[in-house]
């Protein structure tokens, strides 16, 4: 997988890397690669799955709720998305060319967004349970909206040859959009959040107020 990913990153946009080139880069015979995969489609699905795992890993590291305020966590996470998209444009593009192993019926980018939304939803639902708020489906809609909005906005910015916003302006802007969504959902559940306090402190206060 590493050999394939390295070659995809080096290839011009839209150019498919031949299997023989992947095999040579990995120091393998082409026949060895074909014995491991039923064909090109299976190889590409495996590559997209590997790319997805790397992307998700970077984003989940940024989502560490034990480190920072809500604002800092949102900024850090959006920053991680911007970093990944700008540093790996060919991999990001490759995710849109077909499915991963996760779901054969949708492209890998859609699967990636669903995976990130599910991971974030589990985190939000867990926090809601800690402070005594029942999950009514809002977490599902909220996390998918934030994840899909962030990916689409960052991608549009990255593909713009002359973006109006600087990198830092984009990060702050998208993080503020995400905060307004989170704040709005929290208020509908009767919760008042402070975006600048450490999230662990906010959770402790909400638990205390609920007793």
Automatic annotation (TrEMBL):
This is TetR/AcrR family transcriptional regulator. Keywords: DNA-binding. It comes from Nocardia coubleae. Residues 1-55 form the HTH tetR-type domain. One of its GO terms (molecular function) is DNA-binding transcription factor activity. Residues 18-37 bind DNA. It comes from the Bacteria. The keyword Cytoplasm does not apply. Signal peptide: none annotated. The keyword Magnesium does not apply.
